[in-house]
Write a structure and sequence with these properties.
This protein is an alpha/beta fold. It has twelve helices and twelve strands. Strands 7, 8, 9, 10, 11 and 12 form a six-stranded mixed sheet that branches. The protein has a four-stranded parallel sheet with strand order 4-3-5-6. The chain has a two-stranded antiparallel ribbon with strand order 1-2. The longest helix has 19 residues, at about 190-210.
């Protein structure tokens, strides 16, 4: 989830020329194939076209210089075994998981922590593929418009969970995430790795759901992501938090919001009185980003400090990036199930 504070930027013609050259380089006769085929060598499976967020995108070869627009997108490619083909990444919002930290730190970071990759920096990396998890990053003001990148010969992939920043995704669920792994595996020329990742993550979710304790009355939860200028933002309908709520049998108190990430108010939070507050733990440096800061804020506020969930320390902490579609999203389910069972 992101709260955009975009600043207008004019793309420079010379950088577009560089990108066009980079795109043409990726369109050469050397094509990559299926699993076991090195990127840039000939092989079966290319070119192929995928319908992605309403746009037909053709992939002519397995990428050799992918740029991921955000940290969690990079983490997915690392788990697919193609981290050595990432030419740059950006929008870091938390500490890299220990399991992949060594591989991640070899990737050039093209933006400041918590900031988007600007178009000029993207161009400098000369990518032959761009993958991102947020529609708002694929704009002229940020990393570059998808249509323009395609015209310049650089194919892209935008997660189907966020085709439009302003609209909820009907029926967003883990199956969409598993399919994203499969699609990325195909794009990168490692389809078996995509299928393996989908199977492993499904097993994590299924195993956790087997431990859900049935309740006569569902617990009411708030997915508390962040604050912006003092206003709380919480998960609404249409995203993975809502889907996970339904899977584990709890009620999201903002399921009736108009967007998947809703700007709410402390008065609304108090009136809806959650039984449990699920805290996004972020380390990007914004005010009240960490889980500890959120707890302190809730306890000190004269309104929320009176809530039973706050007085009773009925909190469950989740890494903030895991609330968006990412490799870590599957681990939210066991963490939430264990936390709810502990709280009773």
């Amino acid at each position: 989830m992101r709260i955009s504070r975009m600043k207008t930027m004019t793309a420079v013609l010379t950088t577009l020329t560089v990108l066009a050259v980079a795109g043409c380089a990726g369109d050469g006769s050397a094509q990559a194939g299926g699993p076991g085929t090195a990127a840039g060598t000939s092989g079966p499976g290319y070119p192929f076209t995928l319908r992605n967020c309403g746009t037909d995108v053709t992939y002519k070869a397995a990428p050799k210089k992918a740029v991921t627009l955000n940290q969690t997108a990079a983490e997915i490619l690392i788990h697919l075994g193609v981290g050595d083909r990432i030419a740059g990444t950006g929008y870091e919002i938390e500490k890299t998981p220990d399991a992949i930290a060594e591989r991640y730190k070899r990737i050039p970071v093209l933006s400041a922590p918590g900031q988007e990759i600007k178009h000029e920096k993207l161009v400098e990396a000369q990518p032959d593929f761009v993958y991102g998890s947020f529609a708002s990053m694929f704009t002229a003001e940020q990393s570059g418009d998808r249509k323009r990148l395609h015209e310049l010969g650089v194919p892209t992939y935008l997660t189907e969970f966020d085709c439009s920043y302003h609209e909820s995704v009907a029926g967003a669920d883990f199956d969409m995430l598993y399919e994203e792994y499969r699609r990325l595996g195909r794009i990168m020329g490692v389809p078996a790795a995509g299928e393996k990742l989908a199977t492993e993550q499904k097993a994590v979710v299924d195993q956790a759901l087997s431990g859900v304790r049935k309740r006569d009355t569902p617990l009411r939860v708030m997915w508390f992501y962040s604050t912006y200028e003092g206003t709380p933002w919480a998960a609404g309908p249409g995203g993975l938090p809502q889907h996970i709520s339904e899977l584990v049998g709890v009620q999201n108190i903002f399921a009736d919001a108009k967007t998947k990430w809703a700007e709410v108010s402390w008065d609304e939070v108090a009136a809806r009185n959650p039984d449990v507050i699920i805290l996004a733990d972020l380390t990007r440096g914004e005010p009240n980003d960490t889980a500890k800061e959120k707890v302190d804020l809730l306890k000190k506020d004269p309104l929320t400090g009176k809530l039973d969930a706050v007085k009773g320390d009925r909190f469950i902490t989740i890494p903030g990036s895991h609330m968006d579609p990412s490799y870590g999203s599957a681990s939210v389910v066991p963490t939430l199930v264990d936390g709810l069972n502990r709280l009773g």
